[in-house]
Design goal:
Blueprint (H helix, E strand, L loop, with lengths): L2 H5 L6 H4 L4 E5 L2 E4 L4 E4 L2 H4 L8 H12 L12 H15 L7 E4 L4 H16 L4 E4 L8 H5 L4 H5 L8 E4 L11 H10 L10 E4 L2 E2 L5 E2 L2 H13 L3 E5 L23 E4 L12 E4 L19 H16 L2 H20 L7 E5 L2 E5 L8 H11 L2 E2 L1 E3 L5 E4 L7 H22 L8
Helix pairs in contact: 4-11, 5-11, 12-14, 13-14
């Protein structure tokens, strides 16, 4: 029995899919104690958009550490925080004409969601929240109440209150007018559902199975919230920081949410950091009403500032666009033809290979396991974990991106052949 199995809690999860002991990482590559090398299409569940040990960001962190910069500062004024706020304003908010105040909460995505939900309820004086089927917003009780996955909800050990789940425009609900339905719920005096303080949504349900919200749908959702005096919260924790192309995934719809939550890659280096963005008129917090010992992660501020600079210096958005074109073309031309049971969806460098239509219920697990055997790390998401998710660092080289996609193709083809499921003649 390894020291991990002997001492670490059974709650551990990713190590069960990726059982090697990892010792080193660089760019889009992971290196194991066994000598094996892996291409990383997982990127720390979205926390490593800028790759492992990005040289530019690392140099700024090392420089800060060697200068004996403040390592822990709660919410005190520090030079590291000042630099981040200035850079975030100049490079992200002002060019997009966004007027948000920044709240530094606990350094996890779930805490940013907790802060947004608490503030929405405080502002509107209502306890209810609308979320969506397929949503994932975190694992602490408040954010978990807005998460739809029954497996995760059951672990709460208590009732999860004050959240109503609305249909999301995907799967069997794709042709259903979900916005009209929500409007009817809000206007029907016999719907049995009270008006919520806020509606929280993801523009792409990443953990939910790469379900993309249509642009018109998001625009109608924004209008509905305005008309009914409901705050709109956009969860950018996994799909923000350039993952779908632009820095914010909601930009493609031309909307402005009332609150935005960011975490994962906002620190640029995989360091714990989360922020809640709020329109100035919503900032009715009293001092300390929402706090946390590590809301002042100074190294994360340094990394975040460097990451924003890196994005500008290396035209990261344009790079993502080019790589997205390659991935889209490869998946449609090389993966989809392997079986009529495969569906492809995604954008930017966030893609899903949906095999839920397959009669072989373990096919997604077999594909992911075979990818790992061949040196590619990726995860499964969505209902019954039937969607293979591709989420490489945005900085991945084209050579490594092509190699990873080729491994995926081999794994998909081999697993469908072994399953005996009928495939297209192109194989």
């Amino acid at each position: 029995m390894s020291i991990f199995e002997k001492m670490e809690s059974n709650v551990r999860s990713y190590c069960r899919s990726f059982p090697d002991v990892f010792t080193k990482a660089k760019g889009s590559m992971l290196y194991a104690e066994s000598g094996r090398t892996f291409i990383d299409f997982f990127a720390g569940a979205g926390a490593l958009n800028y790759g492992h040990n990005n040289d530019y960001i690392k140099s700024k962190l090392v420089e800060y550490l060697e200068s004996d910069g403040i390592s822990h500062g709660l919410d005190m004024f520090t030079s590291a925080k000042e630099s981040f706020l200035h850079t975030f304003s100049e490079l992200i908010l002002k060019p997009r004409e966004l007027d948000y105040k920044v709240q530094f909460c606990g350094p996890t995505g779930t805490n940013a969601v907790e802060a947004a939900l608490k503030l929405a309820r405080k502002v509107k004086g209502r306890s209810g929240i609308f979320s969506f089927m397929g949503a994932f917003h975190g694992m602490s009780l408040g954010s978990l109440s807005a998460t739809s996955n029954l497996y995760h909800r059951m672990a709460a050990g208590t009732d999860l209150h004050n959240v109503s789940f609305m249909p999301f425009p995907c799967g069997y609900m794709r042709t259903f007018d979900t916005i009209k339905y929500i409007d009817e719920v809000l206007t029907d005096d016999h719907s049995g559902i009270d008006k919520p303080a806020a509606i929280i949504f993801e523009t792409v349900q990443a953990e939910g199975g790469l379900n993309e919200a249509p642009i018109e749908w998001m625009q109608r959702l924004r209008e509905l919230c305005t008309r009914h005096d409901i705050l709109l919260i956009c969860d950018e924790i996994q799909v923000g920081c350039g993952r779908t192309g632009p820095f914010f995934s909601f930009e493609r719809a031309g909307i402005v949410p009332d609150l935005v939550v960011l975490s994962k890659s906002i620190s640029g280096y995989g360091l714990p950091m989360a922020i809640t963005l709020l329109k100035p008129e919503l900032d009715i917090w009293n001092p300390g009403e929402h706090n946390g010992t590590f809301r002042g992660n100074q190294m994360a501020f340094v990394g975040a500032t460097a990451a924003l600079e890196y994005g500008e210096l290396y035209s990261l958005e344009a790079e993502v666009h080019l790589k997205a074109q390659f991935v889209s073309r490869f998946l449609q031309e090389e993966i989809a033809p392997l079986s009529e049971d495969i569906q492809i969806r995604g954008m930017g460098l966030l893609w899903g290979v949906d095999v839920s239509a397959s009669k072989h219920e373990n096919i997604s697990k077999e594909i992911a396991s075979r990818c790992y055997e061949l040196g590619l790390i990726l995860e499964r998401v969505g209902r019954q974990d039937a969607v293979i998710k591709l989420m490489p660092p945005l900085t991945i080289s084209m050579e490594e991106l092509e190699q990873g996609c080729s491994i995926l193709r081999q794994a998909v083809q081999e697993c469908f052949e072994r399953s005996g499921i009928r495939q297209h003649a192109l194989i």
